[in-house]
């Protein structure tokens, strides 16, 4: 669904041809994301079947296939917003939010702020439980280096998630205090 969310987000801003969407994804990620034409067109078709998007213009040219641009429908706008809220509500890591972060202007920042606080509460609880159980420092007599490495990776991963979600909270706080809202 993350590619579909991204497509809906771009179509929220204007009409696009699938190839234009692919170019924007590649440019926005410095070609770090691999989007195949088949996957892209499959997701456009899926959104069309759900009536989240519609064909807005068909451009015909000689010796070339028709070029179809798409626009988002009112049903698609609602589904898009709900998917953003759902992404935040169910976030397990900051990476799961990357497809929706460019489109936060379309949703209620207060609601997102609440969801991020909830995620931080869960992460802090997890970090505390991890420390209390001693898993971060527990040493396996047979393979102490391996066990310590696992503990350190998990501990540092949780700390990084907490740090990134705190940064996201700051972004949302700035947005909430903006006079334009």
Summarize the topology.
Layout: H1 2-13, H2 18-28, H3 37-49, E1 53-59, E2 67-72, H4 74-89, H5 109-133, H6 144-177
Antiparallel strand pairs: 1-2
Protein name: Transcriptional regulator PadR-like family protein
Pfam families: PadR
InterPro entries: Metal_resp_DNA-bind_regulator, Tscrpt_reg_PadR_N, WH-like_DNA-bd_sf, WH_DNA-bd_sf
Provide an overview of this structure.
The protein is mostly helical. The chain has two domains: 1-80, Winged helix-like DNA-binding domain superfamily/Winged helix DNA-binding domain (Arc Repressor Mutant, subunit A, Orthogonal Bundle); 108-177. Helix content is 61%, strand content 7%. Strands 1-2 form a two-stranded antiparallel sheet. A hairpin with a 7-residue loop joins strand 1 (53-59) and strand 2. Helix 1 crosses helix 4 and helix 5 (109-133) packs antiparallel against helix 6. 20% of the residues are buried. The model has no long low-confidence stretch (mean pLDDT 86).
């Amino acid at each position: 669904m993350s590619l579909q969310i991204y497509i809906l987000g771009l179509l929220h801003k204007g009409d696009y041809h699938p190839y234009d969407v692919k170019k924007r994804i590649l440019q926005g990620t410095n070609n770090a994301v691999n989007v195949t034409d088949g996957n892209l067109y499959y997701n456009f078709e899926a959104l069309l079947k759900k009536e989240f998007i519609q064909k807005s213009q068909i451009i015909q040219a000689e010796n070339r296939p028709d070029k179809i641009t798409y626009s988002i429908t009112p049903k698609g706008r609602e589904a898009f917003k709900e998917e953003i809220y759902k992404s935040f509500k169910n976030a397990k890591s900051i990476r799961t939010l990357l497809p929706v972060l460019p489109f936060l202007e379309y949703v209620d920042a207060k609601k997102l702020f609440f969801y991020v606080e909830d995620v931080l509460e869960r992460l802090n609880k997890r970090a505390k439980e991890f420390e209390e159980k001693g898993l971060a420092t527990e040493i396996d007599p047979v393979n102490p280096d391996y066990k310590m490495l696992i503990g350190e990776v998990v501990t540092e991963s949780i700390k990084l998630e907490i740090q990134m979600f705190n940064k996201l909270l700051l972004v949302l706080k700035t947005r909430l205090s903006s006079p334009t809202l």
